[in-house]
Amino acid sequence: MKFKTYKGTKVTVERVYMIGDKQFVDLRDPRNGHEFRSVPVTEFEKGAEAKEVVFEKDGHKQTFVKNSAGYKTFVKENKLNPLFIDNCLKGISKTHKGFKIYCQNF
Q1: What DSSP string describes 13-55?
Q2: What rounded mean pLDDT belongs to the chain?
Q3: Of 57, 75, 91, 92, which has the most beta carbons under 10 Å away?
Q4: Which residues have CB under 8 Å from 100's CB, separation 6+?
Q5: How far apart are CA 81 and CA 55, in angstroms?
Q6: Residues 6 or more apart in contact with residue 84 via CB below 8 angstroms
């Protein structure tokens, strides 16, 4: 079980979901069972599951929340391979099909 920190409290992530292009999490304090529901990822610690993925090519930047509808459409339209995108996000490589790909944690 991985613990994250939210407002100084160690919590577990119970659920991650999206509403539109925004990602939310439900958290639980395992010590007392207190739940934090519908926490926007922007309020959650760095290193949370949600990430802004930046695709940069020819001086143009496009940013998407990973796995959002816009992200999936962009990947499909540009025939990008999710495995190679993940390699860029992990730092294994820097580019894929001419796109410099990197992430920005919320």
Answers
A1: EEEEEEETTEEEEEEE-TTT--EEEEEEGGGSPTT-S-EEEEE
A2: 85
A3: 75
A4: 54, 55, 56, 57, 88, 94
A5: 13
A6: 93, 96
Taking the C-alpha atoms of residue 66 and residue 70, their distance in angstroms, rounded to an integer, is: 9
CATH of domain 51-105: 1.10.10
Go through the chain and tell me how many residues it has: 106
Q: What is the largest CA-CA distance in the chain?
A: 51
Q: Which residues pair with 55 in a beta bridge?
A: 62, 101
**Predicted local confidence at residue 50, as pLDDT:** 54
Cβ atoms 52, 63 nearer than 8 A:
yes
Pairing state between β 95-96 and 60-65: unpaired
Rounded CA-CA distance 68/22 in Å is 8
Contact 66, 59 (CB under 8 A): no
pLDDT confidence of residue 42: 72
